[in-house]
Design brief:
Shape: globular
Number of helices: 2
Low-confidence stretches: none
Strand content: 35-45%
Structural class: mainly beta
Bound molecules: 6-O-phosphono-beta-D-glucopyranose
Mean pLDDT: 97
Pfam families: Aldose_epim
Largest sheet: 9 strands, antiparallel
Number of strands: 22
EC number: 5.1.3.15
Strand order of the largest sheet: 7-8-9-10-22-19-18-13-16
Oligomer: single chain
Family: Belongs to the glucose-6-phosphate 1-epimerase family.
InterPro entries: Aldose_1/G6P_1-epimerase, G6P_1-epimerase, Gal_mutarotase_sf_dom, GH-type_carb-bd
Catalytic activity: alpha-D-glucose 6-phosphate = beta-D-glucose 6-phosphate
Length: 297
């Protein structure tokens, strides 16, 4: 069977290749496993909670309507870090296409986490579409402002945890020349390094990354993941390294930071504002591609 639904999750398998599958937890509509020919592509903490008691540490948590912890907006500032989508149980809307196998999940205030919608009383409809290609995974989001009178102000981000072999042998390409905000230094500057490498905690937001740029994760000269984006101008690059991992109870093993890198495409530098009745769409495509070092224009 291509789509298997249980109370907790949905598993989508390629009809032509049962070793290629994606598993989506209804809580947060969180993709927490994507296997390509039996090989896991995403990192998931061994202490991740999959029982709905907290957002999943790993996979692809969804960040909406706010990235990080807001301190200025009247309503968004009341929400916890990264908003309410990853801590709400979504509705499984079913399979929408057989080739490539595609499923959808929906979230609206009536079913979202009531503790959180109380703090952020807005009208919205989110539709997440997950499409399992032969060697790719596309996650697409549509945000609709279902209010007839109020604007909807939000961030969106796919918090993608990629599985890698060894963080110190890994580099991320095609972000050179981009302006970034370093969340640890609290400073903005242009990244002049030809590639991003990792030797310590990293938490940066690249802004307005040209949509033509495919971000590539390269392990000792070999492309292991390629990330393409639509309508997601910013990219967060995060690795907690030693100390920060120690402080996260759901981050295990403690050496797990060596096998993960978060490359998170989003719209987070500023807010999207949707007029009543309007929709906004974006997607990320995780795939494999030739190594392509793109020149800075
Ligand atoms: O622990 P959380 O809420 O899942 O966040 C993890 C990280 O998410 C990243 O997106 C942020 O840039 C980091 O600052 C943050 O630490």
């Amino acid at each position: 069977m291509v789509v298997k639904e249980t109370d907790r999750e949905v598993v989508l398998t390629r009809p032509d290749d049962e070793t290629t599958s994606v598993t989506i937890l209804k809580y947060g509509a969180t993709v927490y496993s994507w296997k390509l020919k039996s090989e896991e592509q995403l990192w998931l903490s061994t202490a991740a909670k999959l029982d709905g008691s907290k957002p999943v540490r790993g996979g692809i948590p969804l960040v909406f309507p706010v990235f990080g912890k807001n301190t200025t907006d009247e309503y968004l500032s009341k929400l916890p870090q990264h908003g309410l989508a990853r801590n709400s149980t979504w509705e499984f809307l079913g399979q929408t296409k057989s080739d490539p196998p595609t499923v959808q999940f929906g979230l609206k205030p009536e079913i979202a986490n009531p503790e959180l919608t109380k703090l952020w009383p807005m009208d919205f409809l989110l539709i997440l579409t997950v499409e399992l290609g032969a060697d790719s995974l596309k996650t697409a989001i549509e945000v609709e402002n279902t209010s007839t009178s109020k604007e909807l102000k939000f961030n969106w981000l796919f918090h993608t945890y990629f599985r890698i072999e060894d963080i110190e042998g890994t580099m991320v390409s095609n972000l050179a020349g981009m302006k970034l905000y370093d969340q640890l230094l609290k400073e903005s500057y242009v990244d002049k390094h030809p590639v991003v490498t990792f030797h310590q905690e990293t938490d940066v937001i690249y802004q307005n990354v040209n949509p033509e740029r495919a971000i590539q994760i390269v392990d000792k000269g070999v492309q292991v993941h390629t990330l393409k984006r639509y309508n997601l101008p910013d990219t967060v690059v995060w690795n907690p390294w030693v100390e920060k991992s120690q402080g996260m109870a759901d981050f295990e093993p403690k050496t797990g930071y060596e096998q993960m890198i978060c490359i998170e495409p989003g719209h987070v530098h500023d807010f999207i504002t949707l007029a009543p009745g309007k929709k906004w769409n974006a997607h990320q495509l995780l795939c494999k591609d030739e190594l392509n070092y793109q020149a800075i224009q």
